[in-house]
Design a protein that fits this description.
Elements (H helix, E strand, L loop, with lengths): L38 H16 L13 E7 L10 H8 L3 E2 L2 H4 L14 E2 L5 E3 L2 E7 H33 L33
Antiparallel strand pairs: 1-5, 2-5, 3-4, 4-5
Length: 202
Amino acid sequence: MKVPIVITAPPPEFGELHASAEFTDPDIMDHDHTYVPGFSELRLARDRAIVEVMQGKRRPADVPTLPYNLRWVRNQSRDGKPDSRKVIRAGNRGYQAVTKQEHIGEGKLLKELPPGAKVEADGTILQGDTILMIAPADRVARNELQKQEKTRSAARRTEAGFAAAVAETGGRPMRSASPYINKELGQPVRAELNPKSKSKSE
């Protein structure tokens, strides 16, 4: 004989909902406030491919690369006033503003606007206090190489400074107490300064 279930509490305000695959799906946009339709999926696919390399399921050479990079760049100060300093800095690193006319729509770079974004009179895409900007892959790779070289250069100068300071004191530190720097560089990137031209259909 089955005993009937006795409900002793009222249902939740918005009804019963049981856990499903949606709750852990990384593609669900509400997990990422920087979500951009089309581009965010490319990044997720690359991240999954890297995990498969670590699991031995994929060759490192088969990990896809990104054809461009999108980023939200702050264009206001903390008190809400227009501030283009970071936009100018991004422009100096090869980024340009994404516009609805050039980049959004069927057959273009992005099929639709990011959720919550709005289009300004000049066609630029804003979300909160940020503007959406884009840079080609070769320029982004060059930026990364330059950043890594600056890190290496700073580390070399610091190591030289340590050595000079020790020599100046005339002391000879114990081997176990010798000054050192723990250096951790990012993943290697390939920058093609003269990339092969691509067809307009790509």
